[in-house]
Recover the amino acids of this structure.
């Protein structure tokens, strides 16, 4: 990006809760062991090279995975281009700022040459999301594979992405609809340790209303970067004081009243989530362990078995 991606859960829209089923499909860490053993190496090398060229890639790909899984499940529907007859998720308002699709496309092209019609775009994205976390000094986990790619992608469904203005109750309900619990909510919100947000996703809480939960000095700094009549479309704030490193500073910032989004700070105002924030702020190893577990769990949301293996991630076969 000219600006690093907005965090994985940034979407300034009213939340309409719909159920995305949590599935126990036949996924396996060794799914391509026989049919395409070089798949993960190809993906890693592609993502690594792209990240060296553009340091914003890790935050973008992690966000891409969240946004894909939260709508129709982890089926790569976010990667499909719009057509004359259909406006796809990629062009839904919350996803306009999602970037770096070219990295997934590049990895898929290389995999197609090595193992034609074998590895789904959904699996490429899931592996890439794991790799960018590990590359950023975060945890590594064995990605379960065997997803199929979906054939349906609708822009109007992106309204179901969690909003940066949501309170804890709304967030808990949204995650529950996807088979994810309160711990998963707080844990996966830690993905905000990577990335950047534009002013539009948080300016209301620093200008239009007085939010007592925000640190006053931090609020003043945000107002300087995002004045009331801001004309710089690229202006904004990093979501974490160490935004290129995957660590637990996100939680420390929340405790200090320096959560950029209202939805971030809401996690420390609610008794159901506050103690989890405290535990992750104190113990980075615990956060890493839980993040890896929750990412595996997120990767099971909405997995389909009757989809396809797209040859090109942006179009159905």
């Amino acid at each position: 990006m000219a600006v690093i991606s907005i965090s994985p859960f940034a979407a300034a829209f009213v939340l309409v809760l719909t159920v995305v089923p949590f599935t126990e499909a036949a996924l396996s860490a060794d799914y391509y062991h026989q049919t395409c053993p070089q798949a993960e190496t190809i993906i890693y090398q592609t993502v690594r090279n792209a990240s060296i060229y553009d340091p914003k890639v890790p935050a973008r790909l992690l966000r891409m995975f969240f946004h894909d899984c939260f709508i129709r499940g982890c089926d790569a529907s976010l990667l499909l281009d719009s057509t004359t007859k259909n406006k796809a998720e990629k062009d839904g308002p919350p996803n306009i700022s999602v970037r770096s699709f070219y990295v997934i496309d590049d990895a898929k092209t290389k995999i197609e040459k090595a193992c034609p019609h074998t590895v789904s775009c959904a699996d490429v994205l899931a592996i890439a999301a794991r790799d960018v976390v590990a590359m950023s000094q975060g945890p590594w986990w064995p990605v379960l594979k065997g997803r199929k790619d979906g054939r349906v992608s609708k822009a109007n469904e992106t309204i179901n992405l969690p909003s940066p203005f949501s309170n804890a109750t709304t967030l808990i309900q949204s995650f529950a609809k996807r088979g994810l619990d309160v711990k998963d909510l707080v844990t996966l919100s830690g993905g905000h340790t990577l990335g950047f947000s534009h002013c539009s996703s948080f300016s209301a809480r620093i200008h239009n209303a007085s939010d007592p939960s925000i640190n006053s000095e931090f609020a003043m700094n945000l107002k300087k970067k995002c004045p009331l009549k801001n004309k710089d479309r690229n202006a904004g704030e990093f979501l974490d004081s160490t935004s290129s490193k995957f660590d637990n500073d996100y939680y420390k910032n929340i405790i200090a009243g320096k959560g950029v989004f209202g939805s971030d700070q809401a996690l420390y105002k609610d008794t159901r989530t506050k103690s989890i924030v405290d535990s992750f702020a104190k113990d980075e190893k615990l956060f890493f362990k839980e993040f890896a577990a929750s990412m595996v769990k997120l990767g099971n949301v909405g997995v389909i078995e009757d989809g396809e293996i797209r040859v090109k991630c942006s179009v159905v076969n």
Notes: The first strand starts at residue 196 and ends at 198. Residues 168-294 form a domain with the Peroxidase; domain 2 fold (CATH 1.10.420.10). The CA atoms of residues 50 and 102 lie 9 Å apart.
